[in-house]
Write a structure and sequence with these properties.
diguanylate cyclase, 20% strand, Nucleotide_cyclase, diguanylate cyclase activity, 8 helices, three-stranded antiparallel beta sheet, single chain, Beta-Lactamase, alpha+beta, Alpha-Beta Plaits, 45% helix, EC 2.7.7.65, disordered N terminus
C-alpha cells in the first residue's frame, strides 16, 4: 500500500482552499441539480461533486455513504465525528476505493429537512486533520443532503406519474407505452409475446357488501399475487377500476394460458381479512391475445378484451384465448 507522510498545507494555502470551496459550492450544487433534472442518477452525480470538493482539501479523500450503505461501509463511515488513535501509534486506514492510506478521518452527517439521517460524508486525511475545514465540510454535508433529498423527491414525482397509487403497479398510460415498445421489439426480433386482460369478478358486489376499504384491500392483494407469480420482465398494469393487464414477453399464447390458469387457482384461494374477523374471497376472469396473431396495439388489446368478455359470459373465473 502507498504510504504518505504529513501533507498539511501552510495556513495561506489552507485559507485559499477554504475560500475556494465556499465559492465553488453554489455552482457545484446548481450543476448537480441540473443533472438530477436531466434524469441522471445519484451514483453518477455525487462522486463528481466529491471529486470537485477534494480539489480544495489539503491531502484528503472524500467518500459518501448513504443511509442504506452504512452497515456495510468501512469502520470510519459509521462515525459521526473524528476517528483517530494516539499520535504515538499513528493509525492508518485504507481509503475505500483507493490504494491510499489515511491517518485519520472525520464524519459529517447528512440530515434531511425533516431531521432524518440520510448518510455520512467521510473525509480521510492523509496528514493531520485540519480543524479549520470543519465548518466548510459541514456546509458541504448540508449541500449533499439537499441533493439527496431533491433526487428522492424527483424520483417520487416520476413514480407517481407512472404508477397507480393504490397498487403500485404501472398505470394505464405507461402500460400502453410498454406495450408499444414490446410490439416494436417483437417486430424487429421475430419473437412472440402475449397480453392478458383481467377483471375481478363481482367486484362491485364486494364494495357494496363490505365497503370500499375492503375493495381496496382486494385490489392490493391481487396486485401482490401477480407480482409473486410473474417474472421481473413481465409488465403489470392496473388499467381501470378492477381491470388489470399484463405483457408477457417471449411467451406464446399456450404458455400464457397455462400461467393464467395458475393465476385463477391462486386467486380463488386468496382470503383477504377485513375488519379483523371477515374473510373476503373473490375470483378473476382472464382474456388472452398474442403477437404475431395480432400485430398492433389496438388489435392486441381489443382481442384480449373480447376474450375477457367471453370468459365473463361463460361463467366467470375462467380463461379464454383469442386466436386468429
Amino acid at each position: 500500500m502507498k504510504k504518505t507522510g504529513d501533507l498539511s498545507r501552510s495556513e495561506p494555502e489552507a485559507e485559499s482552499g477554504r475560500n475556494g470551496l465556499l465559492k465553488a459550492l453554489p455552482l457545484l450544487m446548481m450543476e448537480a441539480l441540473s443533472s438530477i433534472q436531466r434524469g441522471e442518477h445519484l451514483t453518477g452525480i455525487l462522486p463528481a461533486v466529491l471529486r470537485e470538493v477534494e480539489k480544495y482539501l489539503p491531502a484528503a479523500r472524500c467518500r459518501l455513504h448513504l443511509a442504506d450503505e452504512l452497515l456495510c461501509a468501512q469502520p470510519l463511515s459509521a462515525a459521526a465525528g473524528r476517528v483517530s488513535g494516539p499520535r504515538s501509534q499513528r493509525p492508518r486506514w485504507l481509503v475505500p476505493g483507493s490504494g491510499c492510506e489515511a491517518r485519520a478521518g472525520e464524519g459529517f452527517p447528512l440530515y434531511s429537512s425533516a431531521g432524518k439521517l440520510s448518510g455520512t460524508l467521510q473525509v480521510y486525511w492523509q496528514g493531520a486533520p485540519d480543524p479549520t475545514f470543519a465548518p466548510v465540510l459541514h456546509l458541504v454535508a448540508r449541500v449533499l443532503a439537499a441533493l439527496v433529498e431533491h433526487f428522492c423527491f424527483c424520483a417520487q414525482l416520476s413514480r407517481n406519474a407512472s404508477h397507480d397509487d393504490l397498487t403500485g403497479l404501472f398505470n394505464r398510460s405507461i402500460f400502453f407505452e410498454f406495450l408499444e415498445a414490446e410490439l416494436n421489439k417483437a417486430a424487429r426480433t421475430g419473437t412472440a409475446f402475449s397480453v392478458m386482460m383481467m377483471d375481478l369478478d363481482h367486484f362491485k358486489a364486494i364494495n357494496d357488501r363490505y365497503g370500499h376499504a375492503a375493495g381496496d384491500q382486494v385490489l392490493k392483494h391481487f396486485a401482490e399475487l401477480l407480482r409473486s407469480l410473474l417474472r421481473k420482465s413481465d409488465i403489470i398494469g392496473r388499467i381501470g377500476g378492477e381491470e388489470f393487464a399484463v405483457i408477457l414477453p417471449d411467451t406464446h399464447r399456450q404458455a400464457a394460458a397455462a400461467l393464467a390458469g395458475e393465476i385463477l387457482r391462486r386467486t380463488a384461494a386468496l382470503e383477504v381479512l377485513h375488519d379483523r374477523d371477515t374473510l373476503v374471497r373473490f375470483t378473476v376472469s382472464i382474456g388472452i391475445s398474442a403477437y404475431p396473431d395480432f400485430a398492433n396495439v389496438n388489435a392486441l388489446m381489443s382481442q384480449a378484451d373480447k376474450a375477457l368478455y367471453r370468459a365473463k359470459k361463460n361463467g366467470r373465473n375462467r380463461v379464454e384465448v383469442c386466436q386468429e
